[in-house]
Amino acid sequence: MIRLALPIYVELLTAVVAVGVIDLLWVAGLGEAAIAAVTVGTTVEYLAYGLFLAVPTGVTVLVGRRDGRAPLGPVIRTGWVLWAAFSVAVAVPGVVLREPLAALFGGSAELTAGFLLVSLGGLPVYFAQTLVDGVLKGRGDTRRPMRHAIICNVLVVVLDPVFIYGLGMGVQGAAVATVVARGITLAVALGSVPRLRDDGRTRGWEVVRTGLPMSGDFLARALVGMALVEIVAGFGTAAVAGYGIGQKIMLAGVMVFYALRQAAMIRTARGEAVRSPLLLGLASGAVVAVVLNVLATPVAGLFTGDPAPAVEFLRWMTLYLVPFGGLIAVGGVLQASGRGSRLLAATLAGFAVQLPLAYGLSAWLGVTGVWLSMAAGAATSLGLSLERRRARVPC
């Protein structure tokens, strides 16, 4: 599990975290409006990817189930058909509505709209790359997706200054550099896709249905995160800044859990032993919590002159990270064994507990109440995910 998960962790850290951070670092010299535009643009792209996530996840699971047992061609072909459909359904409205979208988030709407024009227009390239990586993961190969993510980030580091400053494109240049880097990476990655055979077929709904719980989980967490920002904003700018910085720091640790989930999902889909995902997830949560507590003050100090709010957030997150680690790791088994809808139901039930608690406890305990509600929601989701089919989830 750990050997399979390690390349996934590197891939997630570079693909999900680094690209946005690299763009932010390069546009920082253009001022706060440019930073805000890139932040909003990458957030919108993140949500758009959540809509498509059902496809690469479903392809990974179905390829894993078929590899060595049945032709892979029908699944891969169906994945590409769904890629085309989602690319049109998400990218075209996004580009057309980029200005209203930019206006929703305030700041410099013109800069944000310019960034969205390129980033949302380039979504088909991003979606295609995740689909190729999904096929490889289904076949038990997590190293090549890691290499693809590293190649893409190296290209972004090189291309960002060329487009932003060298060609004078400013904020929009950051989006162009990312799309070009993803395009080159996709060209390299396409050589990894196995040749198709024409026998058999897979219905598109089967792929979407298999991956839909993962997509639903992703989008639900994004929406709840937005709701928490609104609650925290009531306690002032310092609280919001501390929450934002703390989340960025915590994300590096949380990616460990998602790497374990993908590893468990791949092994389960391929019919391989998974051993103890719950114990591994809980132990990983405890280790991540300890590391973040040790590094909280020096790392938060890199982002701000007043690290106290972020450090307090990370201290309280100890109660959240342990059950959350267990939940995410177990989720891989449930997803691949056809019980993803049960996991999604448990996740939504946890949020149904978390949000009322966030409002109620924050009125009593201040912003600490929000952090406690996160721990309660994660614990509730974990308990429900195990209770539904306790005997069939390896602990």
UniProtKB/TrEMBL annotation:
The keyword Iron-sulfur belongs to this UniProt entry's keyword annotation: no
InterPro entries reported in the protein's UniProt record: MATE_fam, MATE_MdtK
The keyword Transmembrane is annotated on this UniProt entry: yes
Spans through the membrane: 12-40, 46-63, 75-96, 102-128, 149-168, 218-243, 278-296, 316-336, 343-362, 368-386
Database matches in Pfam families: MatE (PF01554)
Keyword line: Membrane, Transmembrane, Transmembrane helix, Transport
Family: Belongs to the multi antimicrobial extrusion (MATE) (TC 2.A.66.1) family.
Function (record text): Multidrug efflux pump.
Protein name listed in UniProt: Probable multidrug resistance protein NorM
Species assigned in the record: Nonomuraea monospora
